[in-house]
Amino acid sequence: MIDNAFSDPKGRPGRPCETPPSPWRTLPLNGRFDLVYEDVTGTWSSRSISARELKLGPGRTLLGGIDTRSGSSRGSRGFRVDRIRRRTDGGTGERIETGILDRLLGRAEAQRRADAMRTRRQANAGRRAILSRSA
Q1: Which of 44, 65, 83, 114 has its CA 20 to 30 A from that of 131?
Q2: 61 exposed, middle or buried (CB, 10 Å; 0-12, 13-18, 19+)?
Q3: What is the per-residue pLDDT across 55-99, written as a single tens digit (0 to 9) for each?
């Protein structure tokens, strides 16, 4: 018998191996941002991204999204928040140079609350529709 995560070496079925919890936490975050970003060599550049997520991990936070200026060849990218020197919101035009992580966390939390509220409203509307049909 071949040994794998679902059996023990003696051929008896075993318990599946549990994956240890990831030290990274991912928060959905949607938006379009123009960034002034400093790369690992200290070179500053302008980036335009369509944000998808904020990843919080050990010692660093990444803003994940599609870098729209570099074309589709690069795909999804992660930008270290501590290297973002300026962030301009594509929707509101708000421009910030300090407290960038705090603002991103606040926006992610606001979007999470809005999504939860939308889900509750849809569920309640579905329940009301079912009750009105049965009445």
Answers
A1: 114
A2: buried
A3: 999 989 999 999 887 655 567 889 999 999 999 999 899 999 999
